[in-house]
Amino acid sequence: MYDIIIIGAGVAGCASARELSRYNASICVVDKEEDVCAGTSKANSAIAHAGYDAEPGSLMAKLNVQGNQMMDEMSKELDFPFKRSGSLVVCVREKDRYKLEDLLERGQKNGVKDLRIVDGKEAHELEPNLSEQVIAALYAPTAGIVCPFGMNIAYAENAAVNGVEFKLNTEVQDIKKTDKGYTLTTSQGLMEAKVVINAAGVYADKFHNMISAEKIHITPRRGDYCLLDKTAGQHVSRTIFPLPDEFGKGVLVTPTVHGNLLVGPTAIDIEDKEATATTQEGLNYLTSKAGEAVSNLPMRQVITSFAGLRAHEDNHEFIIGEVKDSEGFVDVAGIESPGLTSAPAIGVMVKEIVAKMMNLSEKEDFIATRKGIISPAELSKEEQAKLIEAKPEYGNIICRCEMITEGEILDAIHRPLGARSLDGVKRRTRAGMGRCQAGFCSPRTMEILARELHVGMEDITKCGGDSKLIVGTVKDEL
């Protein structure tokens, strides 16, 4: 029996695991996917929101601001990309100017620092490619951009180094309350724990409702995105939002920490918790709406589109805490935007709840830092030469678009919770994320995976499960 089982290896679950790994407890994270960061956490806007949008006094507002303030320290401690680039919420109609004042007041109540409203002239000085229709904007210098994969994986790796066990490819099918805690029926057999933390994203209502008479409901809200090539990455230098509406923060335009430009998301409520396919209608909507805030968007430079699902709770609020009628069952539910920003603070909150509940003692040997994958492209020429001399694999370019080396891919495979699929390599190294979208590097990456994992090429998948890329040979078909 484990002391703690965490359902869900997204950013909220892994942040909770990392914070709880400070204590003497047996902890296991279970997830139905083949890797961490394979659900909502992998497909979002990659924004560190300032915190002016959430309702004052809400848990969402509190954790948003706390998480934003923690981001600099956490990115250094766990070595993931983060940049405090700022954001603008733009107003294009005089009749809507009051909405900026409302957001300013809300942000100030939430404790957001340095918020101010700028007129159209200053807004265009800050961002020359804003639409000519922009008459004013709310400027939030504390907003930022982050790598969602890097952040999620960093939390998971640090948790693993500190003794947290991860059981992937393990789907939780049922949960029962027992005298000792909880029994989980999974696709890999029965598991038992004294405490269960429900960080299951769009499935969090399913697990909550298994053990509680007080039901909750989560709607999968699909968001379509377009990712543009790095040649478009400087079109704006800050995240540009329209005024928010009832479905969220609207279609934004933002640079990414890796130099691309991101446009999205849509906000479409659906029933299917696995429906992450984009639609032409959704992508057309992105182009039209984003153009209202930013002019001359180079949409011909789109290199890929994707969609993610937000876990929209009916009351649009985070649900974090022990379930009233189910002692030892802790919800981390309804974690939609600004969930990524809030994750560092969510982890701390869950840690405090569970550590007090179980009277846990702190470890003396907790490892607080983690070092990410070395990127030769970020080293000086002299440092590159020394690295390649010591490890020649770093001189072998595999992904030409992103200039990713064999050495980086090897590191991604052999580090804690190492990559086991093409997407696993991609999220850790960016191999396959460039202009050709893995058109050239996939076969070579597959060869490296097969060699290092001691399996056949036909066993390598895109993202686990049935997503094999080789389904036969030409000889078999003759």
Description:
The protein has 478 residues and is an alpha+beta fold. Among the domains are: 83-143 and 220-301, 2-Layer Sandwich (D-Amino Acid Oxidase, Chain A, domain 2), CATH 3.30.9; 376-477. It has 13 helices and 22 strands. The protein has helices at residues 11-20, 59-78, 97-110, 120-126, 148-161, 204-211, 280-293, 339-358, 381-390, 406-414, 422-429, 442-453, 474-477, and strands at residues 2-7, 27-30, 47-48, 82-83, 87-91, 116-119, 136-140, 144-146, 165-167, 172-177, 182-186, 189-198, 218-228, 239-241, 252-255, 261-264, 268-269, 302-313, 319-322, 329-333, 397-399, 404-405. The strands form five sheets. Strands 1, 2, 9, 10, 11, 12, 19 and 20 form an eight-stranded mixed β-sheet that branches. Strands 13, 15, 16, 17 and 18 form a five-stranded antiparallel β-sheet that branches. A hairpin with a 4-residue loop joins strand 10 and strand 11. Helix 1 runs parallel beside helix 5 and helix 2 packs across helix 8 (339-358). The longest helix has 20 residues, at 59-78. The protein is globular, with a radius of gyration of 22 Å. The mean pLDDT is 96.
Cα-to-Cα separation, first versus last residue: 53 Å
Unreliable spans are none
Rg estimate, integer Å: 22 Å
Q: What is the CATH T-level topology of one domain?
A: D-Amino Acid Oxidase, Chain A, domain 2
The tally of helices reads 13
> Strand content of the residues, in percent?
15-25%
Content-based structural category: alpha+beta
Helix content: 25-40%
**CATH C-level label of one domain:** Alpha Beta
Q: How would the global form be characterised?
A: globular
CATH architecture of one domain: 2-Layer Sandwich
* Largest pleated sheet: 8 strands, mixed
Please give the number of β-strands.
22
What is the name of the CATH superfamily of one domain? Answer: D-Amino Acid Oxidase, subunit A, domain 2
What is the averaged pLDDT score? 96
